[in-house]
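Hi there,

I know you've been waiting on this one. I reran it after we fixed the sequence typo, so this is the corrected version. Both the input and the resulting structure follow.
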Amino acid sequence: MNLYIRNLILKPIEMVDLKSQYQHIKTEIDQAIQSVIDSALFINGPSVGEFKKDLETYLQIKNVIPCANGTDALQLALMALDLKEGDEIITASFTYAATAEVIALLKLTPVLVEVDKDTFCINSDKIEAAITPKTKAIIPVHLFGQCADMEKIILLAKKYNLFVIEDTAQAIGADYTFQNGEKLKAGTIGTIGCTSFFPSKNLGSFGDGGAVFTNDNLLAGKIKRISNHGQSSKYVHDEIGINSRLDTLQAAILKVKLKYLDLYAANRNIVADYYDETFQNHPDIIIPKRVQNSSHVFHQYTLQILNGKRDELKKYLAEKNIPTMVYYPKAIHQQKAFKNKDSEKIDFSITENLCQNVLSLPIHTEMETEQLGYICSKILAFFAPKL
């Protein structure tokens, strides 16, 4: 029996193997959790402030405001900008619904644009045509672990006096390099950055969690107040807010895992390199494009499967005990909740094509070479000529 098949029986392939990740840092995590339990400071305990400071240092940003989840992070960002009902926010149609959902929830108008066919991120060449007098912000989504074209987006924002809110839930730790050589972390480039600490994220908690980033101290103060019922001090409510906080247990866990974030990204890149080498130049497969001005932390490794074979391949791999995922089977503009006449006038052929073709393979920090060999051999076997 081949080595990788024997190992596979012992350790099934997972899309994200959080159990194995935990085992490598078990002692540190257990100590962090136990210290919170011993203190009984489950809300706003010391670990929250410690993690906040550590993340500010890592991102090289002035302010991190922890919150309850990534969706809340986006909501807090928009609430802090004093936007009015009907104001327009530009974002991509090829993303998870939360990005547009928060816009609509606040009675703002999501304006959806096409994405780049190679990077899956918002197509910066399509943004300007979508700007109107009602446009107030752009939300680029750094999809699958790589930054959108932030240099051009920032220039457009300055030209039209727009806010930029980065959705970096899938790209925390990625570096973006401007033409002048300046390098900034994803989420620290625009007006505000937002992230999620959902367990499967590159920096994931053991439950829900999120954070907002900004270099604007006044804006940070407002976001912090809004996240705490609009309070400037206890029982003093200066504005309408929400209740969104990162609990102490999750902060303690994230404080440990933040130390390993760059290592996790490096491990994911090893997996991506293996997949790239296997599938490059394959007539039925397009591998993810890596752009020069952004590093890639590979939250997902997403192929494009050509010639209408995606669903058949997905079914075949499931039969071989290889999990895969489709991110995303329907675009935002195709969802009943977001359909409108304006979207019907826009050419979303790239986005709709991606919805039919994309397939994400297992990628995580604990993948073994034998598992990769098994996955790749089965994909190549699927496409091999049938005798």
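Quick highlight: The chain is about 40% helix and 15% strand.

Best,
R. S.
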